[in-house]
Design brief:
alpha/beta; about 20% strand; single chain; ten-stranded mixed beta sheet; Rossmann fold; 14 helices
Length: about 425
């Protein structure tokens, strides 16, 4: 027992009762923290087996990121008056989908006064609006069918700047039409794999039949979750008895499939889902068996390429570009390597392992210095590219010139009629 001392150094006779923590206590405390953390993590993973919570983690549709903003007023995001026309689409299964039609800048300039004179807000009948007529009645007009990523709305984050990037290469011709999927923003319903495909099909049908734009003048653009939706859309239409093929497809920050994504994905770039289990394959496989939303992008894209390769080769059938940034901390860019490998493998009769293909890809690469690199694989039926930039993160890259260039290239303007 220790005693305390007076100011002159003599003992007070009162013992110092302040407790001290020995090494054993520290170990016990650390062990308790570890146990609580492990139990908490497995509780979190267990909650993901519940469909509602699993859906929220995959789609993040409740995180609008545009709180206190009205998505029926696009001017809040810097657009000119009536440069964007908000309108609604109704799906075959009864959902109401909110959409934006973004006019290219030079086309807007040429019709500025008429557009300013029109009423703003959600169009009760979009076919009566000048923007729609400019799209439908111009035989040279092109359309980007835009499918955004998880979380947020049409006006969230880098999406508005990316709409401007869509038409940068041809500011008098390239229209962008984007939707909020069911359960996102002002759209009704609850997101699901089949539901989001239905939403994309509804948009494609509206563009082709209401706006009268043929598939040869449409490019599908998807980012993150939108890449899975875009691939599913292209695969579905190509699989019909009378196949429908768009001019091209641009996939920014794709993932191979949800099972591989869960082993690498961090919500908001911070919270790991199943990353800690990736070192235990059997345990990871067990938890993946509870995943309801598969989004088998790498397999569907490969099958899409396979379908196109099996068609007559009188002209190219597909143009696919995959873009990813090395500093993407949401979805690692190695996912694009996997997607590219599966797509290219679908053009070949013999199977090539991923490791063998990566070695082969070194010969395909065109090095671009600080801008990254691009690898291309071309057949008589089409072309598949993988472009990896050094910077751009997960979302910012959508507004970069590389996207404008790739969108322009995907239209294959010499083939537009």
């Amino acid at each position: 027992m220790r005693t305390t001392l007076k100011s002159d150094g003599s003992p007070t006779g009162k013992p110092n009762t302040r407790p001290t923590m020995g090494l054993g206590s520290l170990v016990q405390y650390a062990l308790l923290i570890l146990i609580i953390s492990v139990v908490g993590y497995f509780f979190f993973v267990g909650v993901l087996a519940i469909p509602f919570f699993q859906s929220q983690v995959i789609y993040l549709n409740s995180v609008t990121l545009t709180w206190f903003q009205d998505v029926s007023i696009p001017e809040q995001w810097g657009f000119l008056r009536n440069q964007v026309t908000p309108f609604v689409l109704r799906t075959p299964d009864g959902e109401t989908i909110h959409a934006w039609h973004v006019l290219p800048l030079d086309l807007y300039r040429r019709n500025e006064q008429q557009l300013i004179d029109e009423p703003d807000g959600i169009a009760a009948d979009v076919t009566k609006r000048l923007s729609f007529k400019l799209l439908r009645d111009d035989p040279a007009s092109l359309v980007v069918l835009y499918l955004h990523g998880a979380a947020g709305t049409l006006g969230s984050g880098w999406r508005p700047p990316s709409y401007r990037a869509m038409h940068a290469g041809a500011p008098d011709r390239i229209h962008t039409i984007a939707i909020d999927y069911r359960g996102f923003g002002a759209s009704s319903g609850v997101p699901s794999e089949d539901g989001l495909l239905t939403d994309a099909l509804t948009l494609a049908d509206w563009i082709m039949h209401e706006a009268k734009i043929p598939p040869s003048r449409i490019v599908v653009f998807g980012q993150s979750l939108g890449t899975a939706v875009g691939i599913s859309l292209a695969h579905h239409l190509a699989s019909r008895p009378e196949p429908i093929l768009f001019s091209g497809m641009v996939l920014v920050a794709p993932f191979a499939d949800v099972e591989l994504l869960t082993a690498t994905y961090r919500v908001a770039g911070v919270i790991p889902i199943l990353d800690p289990l990736s070192h235990f394959p059997r345990l990871l496989s067990f938890f993946n068996s509870f995943i309801l939303h598969k989004w088998l992008s790498k397999d569907k894209l490969a099958d899409f390429v396979r379908i196109c390769e099996g068609m007559s080769r009188s002209e190219p059938k597909y143009d696919i570009t995959i873009i990813h940034a090395e500093d993407d901390y949401d979805i690692p860019w190695k996912h694009s390597d996997r997607v590219f490998w599966h797509a290219v493998s679908a053009t070949r009769p013999d199977e090539t392992s991923f490791e063998e293909f990566e070695a082969e890809k070194e010969q395909m690469k065109k090095m671009l210095g600080a801008a990254g690199w691009v690898a291309s694989h071309k057949t008589a039926s089409g072309v598949i590219r993988e472009a990896i930039t050094k910077w751009g993160l997960h979302d910012r890259i959508m507004s970069y010139p590389i996207v404008s260039l790739v969108v322009l290239r995907a239209f294959r303007l010499e083939n537009v009629h």
